[in-house]
Each structure stands twice: as structure tokens, then as C-alpha cells.
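Sorry to interrupt, but I need a hand with the structure work. Can you supply me with one protein entry, sequence and fold together? No commentary is needed, just the two lines. Leave the record below and I will have a look.
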Amino acid sequence: FFAIFSNFCIDIDLKFIITVYLMSNYELYHQHPVNKGIHLICIPMIILTSMNFLNNMYFCSLKTKYGYDLEWDLRGILLFIYSVYYIRISLYTGFIMTLFMMAMSSLSDYWQEKDKHWILNSFKLFALAWALQFIGHYIEGVRPALVDSLLSTLFEAPLFSLSYIVPGLKN
């Protein structure tokens, strides 16, 4: 029992240490207040437009014998992966970040329903958000974090963007 419990505790501590390291490392690329402000605005824009792009890409579609359609789009799979990742940091972080991602998903649905040119407008906003972030890094004088670690950036950027407006999110 103690061997299993101690392995579990070590695993939890290691996950916490890795998460703290990744967030600290990500924050090193974003020290200038202008760059932080740009990222605070642009990261949610990129998440929103990415959800627009992934919403209609289906991973799997099944029809049950009762006539119900079970469809898994890439957006839903992405939401699930993000939720699991953030819950592993802490329940509070997982709860807040899952709510944020669900809000972005709902906003994506609303946008697609109301804007008949949503694909073109999504591309424009996506490109603008990336361009602004590169300008922010030019102002800061450092290259973007995604150059060094694309995968950790994909997970840490949304958390970073909300950590300034939601207390205790990184704990």
C-alpha cells in the first residue's frame, strides 16, 4: 500500500513541478506589459477561431439503432483533451479552464449561426491575432515560446492568458 501511495504522491508532485516549470518558462517569454496585453486579447481570439475551424471536422460519426447520431468533431475532442490536462493541474484550474473553453465553444456556435461569412472572418481574425502576437514579441525583443516548444505552448497559452484576470489559476 505504501509503495503504491508513495508512487502516486511522487507522480502528483512531478506533475505539479512540470506544470510550474512550463508556466514559468512560458512567462519568461512574456514580461513586457504590452506583450502581455496583446496575448491576453489575442490568445482567446486564436482559440475562438480555431474552434470555428475544428467545429465541422468530424473524427467519427455513428448512427445508433435508436436513430440517434453520435458525432465527435475535432473541437469536442480538443475540449476534452484540454479539460483533462487542466484538471490534472488542479480541480479549480480544470473547472475554470473548462468553463472558459466551453464559453469559447458556445461563442463559436453563435458566430457561425449569425455570420454567413464566418469562415473568411475567422481566417482574418486568426491571422490578425497571430500578427499582433508577433508584433508583441518584437516589442519584447524575444522570440515566441512556440518556437521552442509548440506542444507546451498550445496548453500553457490559454492558461497564461486567463491567469492575470482569474486569481489562483496557476496554483
User: Anything to note?
Assistant: The beta strands are 58-63, 69-73. Confidence is low (pLDDT under 50) at residues 1-11. Residues 97 and 137 are 25 Å apart (CA to CA).
